C-alpha cells in the first residue's frame, strides 16, 4: 500500500543544527561572550530589557547572542522566560527624584538647581568613524570633575508644580494596584497605568515614529523636553515576614518628562501638562518618544480632539508590541494551503461563470467596478 | 549562567504542560464562561508563550489548561499531522506534558487544529481546540474594540449582512471562502477561525466540545456540544460550500476538502485530501484514487510492503 | 419671546413628537447652546437658523442623541405612548431609536454614508439592521428608494465616491427614510451645493416630508431654505434662542433686533 511521505520532524531538527552553525559564523573568529555583549553593547542590552520587560542585563546579553543580535527575537526570548517566573510581590514605588544622576539635562531652563549634567552621550559627537576601534586598545583615563555633583537634583516638573503650573498627578482614588498587562487582558478605554506599561515595552521604532508624527502635525504637540535624566535608582521591597523595607539593589533608568501646553477647561485654569517616559538602562530616544505619545494619548482625558493615530489608544496599544506584531506578521510563513485553495476555487469559478455569461452575450452582473 | 540554564535536558524545571497551575485555573475559568455563553468572546490573561504569537499560542494555552495524563492528543495544521507547525506543537506537548499523541482522529481526546475540522465526524467526549488569529468577526467592518463589543452586546449585526450584500451585488455570490461568519445558538456572531467554509456545517450540533483560543488578541470562546451553528446568508442566497469536479487523487474520496498539488512545471496538478489521516485510512481500507501511482513518482507517497 | 403655536392650526396630533427642556451644552468655558426649550409636533418642520457658531449644530447633535447635553432633557414620543427621555434610556435603546425612529442627514455626506459600500448597500443597511434577510427584497426596496430620491436605479451598485455632491445628499436621504422614521434631522442639507442643485434638493425634501408626513428639524444659515421648507423657526445667537414663531411671521415681521439684522442682510444681498 501507499503511505504518505513524512519528513516534517526530521526537517525541523535539521533547521536547528543549521541555525546553530549560522549563529557561530566563521569558527576562525573568536566566539563572543555574553559578558562582552553586556559590557560593550549596553544600549542594545537596554533595548532588549525594555521590550522584553525584564531587568536582567546578563540574560538580555545571552538573548542577544542566541538571537544573533536580532533585538526583537532577543526580547521574545526574555519574555518567554519572564512569563514563567514566580511573583514574590511588588517593590515599593521607585523614587526617580532620588536618582544617583549620571546625566540630567533640561531644555526648558538654562540653569536650575543641580545644573545641567551632560553625562555619556552621542549628542555632540560627529558621526565620523573612529577607526581606532577596529584595533581596540586602552580607553583614555577620565579627568575627574573639580567638584562632585549636587546632592539634590529636583525634577523639573516638580519645580513647576510648586507654582501650580504643572498638572498634578495623584494616584487614582484609593491608590489601587496598577494593572498588569502581562497577566490580564486590556480593555478600553485603558487607564494611564496600562498605557504607560504598553509603551514601556513597546517597540522603540514604532514609538519613535508615532512621537515624531505628533511633532509633524499628526497631533497637536508643542512639547518642551522639561527634563531627561539617567542614573541609578534603588529598589526597595517590604517582605511580609519582616514588615520593613530592604534594599534589593539598583536599576539603571532613563526618565523623560515632556512639558506641554494645555488651554484649560471650564473647571481647570490653563496649565502645563506632562508627557512621561521611563525605561530600563540608557534609552533616551525611547523615553522621549514615549513621553510624546503619552501626552498625545491624554487627549481624551483632557477633552481634546483625538483625530490622529498617536492619540488613539487602541491603535497605539495594539500595535506597539513588537513581539506580538512580529509573530502575527511572520505567521504568514505558516502554511495556508487550505484557505488558499478556497480562494483558488472561488476565483476560477467566478471567472468561468463570467466567461459563460459573456459568451451568451449577457451581462447581468456589473463588471467588478473600480 | 548555570543559575537558570534551561536547555533541552532541564524541562523538569517547568510545570506539567508548561503553564503554572494559577494560569491554568484562570484559563479554565474563562473556558467555563465561554461554554456558558456560546460564541461570546471572553477576555483572558493570555500569557507569553515560547512559541510566537500568531503561531497557535491561544490554542496551545487552552490545550495546556485542559490536558491531563489520561488524554491522547492529536495536532493538525491544514488538516495534516505532518505540517511543520503541527509537528512543532505536538513536540511541545510531548516535552512539557509527556503527552500521548496520535494521528487517529477517533483515538484522540483532544484535537488541536489550525484551519480545518477533521473529515471523520467527531464524537461526544472529544474536544476540538481551534487556533484563532482574529477572533472578532466584525473587525474588518469596525476597527475599534470598544465599538465592536457594543455591537455584540446589543446584537447589532446588520453591518455583517451589508458585507454579504456587497459580495452578492458585485460577484453574484458571497466571496468569503474561509473564516465565514456564523451565528451561534441564535445569539452571538462568531468567527469560526480560518477554516474553509466547507467545514462550517460540521460545527452545527456537533457532539464534541469546540474551544477557540486567540493568544495574541487574548480571547477565548466556545461552542458547547449539540449547539446550533448557522452560517450567515440570505433567504434567497443560501449558504453553500465548496465542491470539486474531481475526486481525491490518492483515495478517490468525493466528499472531502481537497488541496491542490502542483506536480510539474507544465501545468500538471492533482487534488488530494487535505485531511491526511482520513486519506490514509481510506487507502488502508482499499480505496484508490486515479493518481496514486503518479503521486509515488513525485514522492508524495511511497509504496510500503504489506506487513 | 415665545410665540404660542396651536397644533390644531398645523393639522397635527395634539401630542408632541419631540420635546426639548432647557437643553444646554458647554465646551469648556464656552457656551455651545443654553436653555433651549420647545415642542415639535408630528408632521411639523422646524427650522433652526443663525450664523455659524450660533450653536445650532450643537443643539442638533443633542436633540438627535449624538451628544449628551450637560443640562436639560430631550424627550421623544415612544411608540407605546408616553415621552421617553432619550438620555435616560440605555445606550442600546437610544442607538436602536437612532436607527429606526429618527434619522440624520449630515452636512458632510461622508459622515452619513459608507463611502465604500454601494448605493444599494447604503440604503439597505437599515433594513438589514432590523433583520431583513431576503437579498432580492432588500435590493428592490433600495432601488425603489433610489428612484424616489431621483437617482437612476441603474447606479445601485456604484459607490458614493462615484456620485456628485447632490447625489450623495439624496442618497443620504434615501438611506435615512428607507426604514420609515417619524422624524428627520438635517444639518445644512444644501451646504456646499450649486444653486441649481440646491433648488432641486429642496424641492425633493419638501415633497418627501409632505408626502410621508414626517416631522423634521432643519439647521440652516440660509433663510431662503428656511422659508421654503419650514413651518416654524427658531433664531439662535450665541447659543441661545432669541426668537421663535411661525416662519412667515418671523421672517416678515421680525421682533428681535438680531433677527431684523439677519432678515435685512438677506434682503439687501
Keywords:
heterotrimer; A: 370 residues; alpha+beta; 5 strands; 12% strand; disordered C terminus; C: 269 residues; alpha/beta; Rossmann fold; 6-stranded mixed beta sheet; 4-stranded antiparallel beta sheet; 10 helices; 10 strands
Explain this structure to me?
The complex is a heterotrimer of chains A (370), B (307) and C (269). Chain A has helices at 8-24, 34-40, 42-52, 57-66, 71-82, 132-135, 156-162, 192-200, 204-215, 284-297, 313-319, 322-330, 337-359, and strands at residues 2-4, 100-105, 224-237, 246-260, 273-280. By secondary structure, chain A is an alpha+beta fold. Among the domains of chain A are: 13-82, no CATH class; 96-118 and 151-169 and 184-320, no CATH class. In chain A, helix 3 (42-52) packs across helix 5 (71-82) and helix 4 (57-66) crosses helix 5 (71-82). The longest helix of chain A is centred in the last third of the chain and has 23 residues, at 337-359. Chain B folds into 2 domains: 21-139 and 174-231, Bacterial phosphonate metabolism protein PhnH (Rossmann fold, 3-Layer(aba) Sandwich), CATH 3.40.50; 258-306, no CATH class. Chain B is built from 8 helices and 13 strands. In chain B, a hairpin with a 3-residue loop joins strand 6 (182-184) and strand 7. Chain B is globular and about 55 Å long. The N and C termini of chain B lie far apart (51 Å). The model of chain B is unreliable at 1-11 (pLDDT under 50). With 269 residues, chain C is of the alpha/beta class. Chain C has 2 domains: 1-101 and 182-269, Rossmann fold, CATH 3.40.50; 106-180, no CATH class. In chain C, the strands form 2 sheets. Chain C has a 6-stranded mixed sheet with strand order 6-7-8-3-9-10, with helices on both faces. The longest helix of chain C is centred in the last third of the chain and has 18 residues, at 195-212. Chains in contact: A-B, A-C, B-C. The A-C interface holds A 263-266, 303, 366, 369 and C 26, 28-29, 157-158.
